[in-house]
Amino acid sequence: MEKRQNDILQQINTPDDLRRLPVERLPEVCEAVRRFIIEQVSSHPGHFASSLGAVELTVALHYVFDTPDDRLVWDVGHQAYAHKILTGRREQFSTLRQKDGLRGFPFPAESEYDTFSAGHASNSISAALGMAVADNLAGNKRKVVAIIGDASISGGLAFEGLNNASSQPNDLLIVLNDNRMAIDNNVGALHHYLLKITTSQRYNQIRYRAYRTLRKRRLMSDGLRRALIRFTNAVKSLFSHRQNIFEGLDIRYFGPVDGHDVVRLVHILRKIKEMKGPKMLHLCTIKGKGFAPAEEEATIWHAPGKFNPETGERIKEDSSNLPPKFQEVFGRTLVELASADKRIVGITPAMPTGCSMNLMMERFPSRTFDVGIAEEHAVTFSGGLAKEGRIPFCNIYSTFMQRAIDEVIHDVALMNLHVVFCLDRAGLVGADGPTHHGAFDLAFFRVIPNMIVASPIDEHALRRLMFTAANATQSGPWCIRYPRGRGSNPDWQCPLAEIEIGRGRCLREGTADVAVLTLGPIGMEAAKAIEQSGVDAAHYDMQFCKPLDAGLLADVFRRFSRVVTVEDGVRDGGFGSAVLEEASRQHYTGEIVRLGLPDAFVEQGTCAELYQLCGIDAASISLAIKGSENGVKGE
After folding, report:
1. pTM over 0.90
2. Do 411 and 510 fall into the same domain?
């Protein structure tokens, strides 16, 4: 049977090949795709459980719709591995999330089948609606489908798209892939609503027959269609004894349907494919479907790393002698702080295990809030908590914080509220690539009035910054950024003590006429670079991007004719730019070389590969220290 499955997958290089098969063979295709994903991801780690749960849906969509002319718009992209396999990328799949390999998410530059970038949740409905309206304006007959999960649909952008879906003529189909989970368990009222929602088969049969009759007699104008939706929604309420939230928005609703019955999915999609107006098909699926360990513990198997595909045993690194991850230090320190101060609360938008907020949840469940995939709400909710005397530690991945900058400015900084934003995954994150690099936070946070912006060089500094932020007599908003991965100090649990706000420190005096200024853990790379360079350069850990230590910089500008700044963030507008601005204020005439991420989106790869690519690895920093023009990528 396994050989037959492999044979059938070898026959499918494009969706055209898939559509030549009889519908009865589609379950066989699904099993082959699922087995391929298990085998590949076990040795080439990526996002796992989500894609296993969407196999039948993906096969059915490509079987029914004329892709790539018809548009499939994926939300997030964790669920899109089967889509990549069926659209000509099976042979390249082993390069997934590697430098110069396949991206972990759909991206139009990679394939004509990838219609829109999918790295941040909740954008599929708005993007697909824009495509559908554009096609309507152009008189095109292509179909547009948005595929969104039950966690992503709770995001604010998804609601905005839903609310607007019936405002313009379009035939958009929204497929709601409801696996009852995001990465962690879903939260919020909409999630519970989806578990209870019901429909009447008899009602849908009557409605569909009425629609076909009116259409055949050319009586189905757009106005009549909307009137029919509103009238039949009322009828449906009688059948099901409840109002449907989607049909309340003039979106026709079908479901719930078993999302793992591929033959039935094909039948349903064919029936609703030609229907006019916006529609929603609600599927119930199982995250991790077909791989028992992933079905049982979907959170762990969201991105499990390497594992044995036969036994399900995960291959873990021996971390007994390794430093802890920065996120783990954050989580344990937060519990320690909250134990001493009842005002402290924790907030996360759907990433409790990813950022280690789960440790606070276990210890202080009534003071920890997972608000779902809703970064904007997380920030303003934190502002409300702070306004009433709480000290919120709001942990958001740097890349997702980009979505909530208006709320940071308007709902926190403007009122000078004491909210501590802890930005996990700041800087380059590696294999997840440009949608997930935390490249921009220094640039956008440092220009916000009242904001304190800091980055710890190691675990001890992270703990002390958190303690300082919690106990600061100078109340107001804080941003503490730190990277993905491990720090440098296995003995991380240092005593808590305050750090003077805005004060840097000298790590190495140096005798040469060059000083290296760093912010954050990239300072460890710079320390290695100084040793490699053979130049006795001075090294300063600035600790704060805002306020900058103007006194320390005055001493640096007086003593050194050359300054090298290093940051794991965009070079233009970030820490190095802040140093340049201070140098201008102090009329410094020496040379300043800034090393950081370029004015471009950095692709995927290991962090070591990307540090080298961006010129912030030890070798590149060493060249800058020596003043070599060869290979120096700063300014």
Report:
1. no
2. no
